[in-house]
Write a structure and sequence with these properties.
This protein is mostly helical. The chain has helices at residues 10-22, 31-50, 58-68, 77-80, 83-90, 98-108, 112-115, 137-142, 156-168, 192-208, 222-229, 237-247, 286-304, 325-341, 344-349, 358-368, 372-385, 396-399; strands spanning 184-185, 251-254, 265-269, 275-279, 312-314. 33% of the residues are buried. Residues 321-325 have low confidence and may be disordered.
């Protein structure tokens, strides 16, 4: 069998067929039988490559299955969804969705690879507990995160899996339960599907972003955060902060919040090990921006520690409670953030703590080389905690409403 070689040309194919015909009556186990077996495999491989058999058209396959089972169009309503959808699918006016493909595969036995028109294809595994239609697709379309279509709700699974694939490659990102035992400071009215969609979007954007440096574990320390806070003194402070973090391999992604997320920021990590801070800027104030940024940085420095499965999402209008481990972590993040912006020792000794005059605000800001907005925000927050009724009406000219979003192209339109 020394002359048995891979078949690469038509002439070699014809010669192999002729030789295989001569060996047709060879018995198994003999040299001739072994040669026949080998040549048959080589012929089969060449034919598969040279003359591939096309899969049948999905609609043809459905109609054939209907004929074999004596089914009418009305019998497909439980499988496809409605009389009009059945009609549109069978006429080629509507594409099959993953939900339809699963049902046709389960109930009519049509192979998945036929329905998805891919010889090597298979259906993605179902994700337990997810109801795809509950994702806020209209809100995501409005923000430009996805393209709209008339059958958007029917295609919710395909749309969300495409976004998940950008976030984690596999397209398989289970829905977390955003409760107190899952590193969250979340409003009780939060829609977990909207929150999940926002987090997926942030991860996808972070993975597509080219950073100016690589992250080194241990980078985020109180000193690192304190130096970053000094950028607040510059007019372009928020943008400078994003660039500074990029040089240290940390992605700061700004994205508007979806309705019913009640969200200020989040801290997470990509599967490649890149720390990610997501922020909504729902309160377009300088003091809010700097505190939220520091809070999420503290989570990265103290709690995430390279774990891509750990996620913190924060509604910073809520005050961390007492007792459980997650509230402890939220308090630790608050403490690091407050210390980075205005060290406790300095705050307790400075007159602004007791007499919140514009002059005292400016004096402390000058001393710490930070924005006066941070001092004003701290005054308002401390007065609010102490029960001062109109705390958030104090020093409004210092907190700079409407001074953050314009720094980021996401809000430039």
């Amino acid at each position: 069998m020394d002359d048995v070689k891979l078949i690469k040309t038509e002439a070699q194919y014809e010669a192999a067929l002729a030789r295989a015909f001569d060996l047709m009556n060879a018995r198994k186990g003999t040299p001739e039988g072994d040669e026949l077996e080998l040549r048959s495999k080589l012929i089969e491989d060449y034919e598969d490559q040279k003359f591939p058999i096309d899969l049948p058209d999905p609609i043809t396959a459905i109609k054939f299955a209907m004929e074999q089972a004596s089914l009418k169009q009305v019998d497909l309503i439980p499988i496809i969804g409605s009389r009009s959808k059945v009609s549109e699918v069978l006429s080629g006016k509507r594409n099959l969705t993953l939900k339809m493909i699963r049902a046709l595969n389960n109930y009519l036995g049509i192979p998945a690879e036929v329905l998805i028109k891919d010889p090597q294809g298979s259906l993605p595994p179902e994700l337990a507990g997810i109801q795809w239609h509950k994702y806020p697709l209209s809100g995501m379309k409005k923000l430009g995160w996805i393209e709209g279509a008339r059958d958007m709700k029917d295609r919710a699974e395909e749309i969300m899996r495409a976004l998940m694939k950008l976030a984690v490659d596999s397209g398989d990102l289970p829905l977390p339960h955003y409760r107190k035992n899952n590193q969250t400071r979340v409003n009780a009215k939060t829609d977990q599907y909207a929150l999940h969609a926002w987090c997926i979007h942030i991860l996808g954007k972070a993975r597509s972003k080219t950073l100016d440096g690589s992250f080194t574990p241990g980078t985020v320390t109180p000193n690192f955060m304190g130096e970053l806070a000094k950028l607040s003194a510059f007019r372009e402070g928020p943008k400078l902060a994003q660039e500074h973090l990029s040089r240290h391999g940390i992605a700061l992604i700004i994205a508007e919040h979806l309705p019913r997320t009640h969200l200020d920021g989040a801290a997470m990590m990509t599967i490649e090990g890149t720390p990610v801070i997501g922020m909504t800027l729902r309160y377009d104030r300088l003091d809010n921006f700097w505190f939220c940024l520091m809070h999420e940085l503290a989570h990265i420095g103290r709690h995430i520690d390279g774990d891509s499965h750990t996620l913190f999402v924060d509604d910073l209008t809520l005050i961390a409670g007492e007792g459980d481990d997650v509230d402890r972590q939220e308090k630790e993040a608050d403490e690091w953030a407050e210390e980075a912006l205005i060290p406790k020792e300095i705050w307790n000794r400075h007159p602004v703590k007791y007499e919140a005059t514009p002059l005292n605000v400016m004096a402390l800001a000058h001393q710490l080389k930070i924005s006066p907005s941070i001092v004003a925000g701290r005054v308002r927050y401390e007065r609010h905690k102490d029960g001062f009724k109109n705390a958030y009406r104090l020093l409004t000219k210092f907190v700079k409403n409407g001074e953050v979003q314009h720094h980021f192209k996401e809000f430039s339109s």
